User: What shape does this take?
Amino acid sequence: MKIAIIGGGPAGLLTSYYLAINGCETTVFEEHTRIGYPKHCTGLVTARSIAKVPIHTKECIEKMFGKLIIHGQGREALEIIIPTVAKIDRVCFEEKIYAEAVNQKTRFRLGARIDTERKGDEIKLLNVIEDVDFIIDARGFEAAIKNSEKVNKNKLVGINLFIKGKTSMDDNAIHVFFDNKITPGFFAWLVPINEHEVLIGGGFKNPPTQEEIMRYFHRKGFLINHGQIADKYGGVIMRGPPISDFHGKNWLAIGDAISMVKPITGGGLYPIISSIPFKYNNGNCYEALIRLKTGIRNTLEKLRKQYLLSKFIHKRIFPYALDAFIPLIKMVLEVVYLDYDEHDKLVSQLIENIAKRNVYPA
Assistant: This one.
């Protein structure tokens, strides 16, 4: 069975590997000339998600974290114990998957931008000569924005600044800042790599300058000196909602193409990985596609629940609510445990924390 995969990002790469080990004849069409570029992602993903991918990517892990510290607009901060989260080198991660997909006889056509035309329940590739039996749409955010006005309205500009300079923080913790002064309607982040290197950034409707971002963290006391910007990258952050129209007679869509992201954070790796049944490998391409379709459907259902919660968290009133509730939570709980991925369970887990008084929620 001949499969055309449009897009060579994480969604296209992981899907191509999964389909190749199940007997599909896969060809990936990627508009850029190098896998992993341009860089845009912060690169945070849980260790358990990485473990689900049956490809050796251990050397792509730059740092491991066990805590998340949430800051409001004032001085209050809430420390949360989370499942181990890895800061990965996304370029390295994607190159490893690409190499393994090639080993599984996947063909890649780099520098090939593919246009499509939809007629009813089918999609046609406009500038591909060869015949294909099925199409996987794994393109980036442009496809989702084109198909959903809500997705377009909710998108933000993400900016990451890799700073070399003396820092002051708990370097086992990821810091998140809900502050209308810098990121109204979203949040800023600080990811320490070591005591001399840190990644800072945020999601913005109206992006500030690099200097304004650095000054914000300096005022917060997290950059002892201003340091030097060693690298800058970013891209569009999508916040949902997930697009329900993800399949047809001869096609499936996965990843950013259908706004398959965690709506609260915009993270896309976890939804992709959780959708692909990597353990299934009996060489039947058709059955593999059926299982992939089921996995995508189940993930989208979770993301719809997360989207409902995100609508409150992304309101400008949330930082004020956070400032009020953090002291109350700290009065009740010495330690808070929450899941980094399953955002649809955040409220129930917080209630369970209080009920069980620091027993990790099942």
